[in-house]
Amino acid sequence: MNKHATYQQLRGHLAYLKLAAAAEHLPGALEQAERDKPGYTQFLHDLLAIEVTATEQRRLASRTRLAGFPSTKTLEDFDFTAQPSLDRRLVDELATLRFIEEKANVLAIGPPGTGKTMLAIALGIKAVHAGYRVYYTTAADLVARTSRAALEGRWQTTMRFWNGPQLLIVDELGYLPMPGQDASHLFQVISRRYEHGSIILTTNRGIADWGQIFEDTTVAAAILDRLLHHATVLSITGDSYRMRRHRDAITALRPALTGRPEGGEFPSSQVGNSRRRQQLLSQLWEAAERE
């Protein structure tokens, strides 16, 4: 068999084995081997390393797509200085992802806009890059899907779906009330995952206020019991990022819009022309301060 036929057969073998990246890079790898004269083992190692890298990238892209993250912010993007109440060492410990191996949970509690969702997603992204199966959902979407599944006779299939990810992120619990049946569905998802898979749950309600989320306080207690048995609680008590940006923007714009120097008074020639504008701006300022 001549050299060309051997090359074509090698390409065919790689394609048959679905080693597409290795097949694509084979010509260049052979040319480099002609120049560098590596050993047979080194040549095979380098060629298969290309395939391994391509496979890892495809799998990472697939895990990321299936996770359904609404954003791609990472822990490196999180501004810890803006939330001094957050225990940085606790977050760093969670970033090791040991809690996933231990099938433990994370409960992030804090007012709206304090970064709970961003932290949850950032930990989820880190888990995806580490090879874990992750899925993101809001509490409202979770109970909506389980309710549809119950009506359509797909309950067991849906329960297997929620039990599949190694890390399930349930976001925004407490923003909407959860009536009895919805609470029961959430409980069943959490119960099935208990000591089988990890959950990161974010909520704007303190644990003592969970009775206001659920109609049935017994169900609320059961959910908390399973969540907190093996859990890390992140408590964030700082200001909302969004409202802080609004206040900063208003502070920056106020002198330009009003013509008032910082700490000064309106020039008398501008009082009449800017009275309505100043009233509206003052209302916006006061609203931001109340937030």
Sequence of strands across the biggest β-sheet: 2-3-4-1-5
Number of helices: 12
Count of β-strands? 5
Please mark out the parts with pLDDT under 50 across 5 or more consecutive residues, or reply none: 268-273
The whole-number mean of residue pLDDT values reads: 86
CATH topology of the largest domain, by name, is Rossmann fold
**Architecture per CATH nomenclature, i.e. the level-2 architecture of the largest domain:** 3-Layer(aba) Sandwich
Helix percent band: 55-70%
State the distance separating the first and last CA atoms.
Answer: 80 Å
Main sheet? 5 strands, parallel
Strand content: 5-15%
Give the key terms.
5-stranded parallel β-sheet, 291 residues, 3 domains, alpha/beta, Rossmann fold
Structural commentary:
- The structure is a single chain.
- This protein has helices at 3-16, 20-36, 40-67, 88-94, 98-101, 116-129, 139-152, 155-163, 180-193, 217-229, 241-258, 268-290; strands spanning 105-109, 134-138, 167-173, 198-203, 231-235.
- With 291 residues, it is of the alpha/beta class.
- The protein has 3 domains: 3-65, no CATH class; 75-235, Rossmann fold; 241-290, no CATH class.
- A 5-stranded parallel sheet has the order 2-3-4-1-5.
- α9 (180-193) links the parallel β3 and β4 (198-203).
- The longest helix has 28 residues, at 40-67.
- It starts with a helix and ends with a helix.
- The model is unreliable at 268-273 (pLDDT under 50).
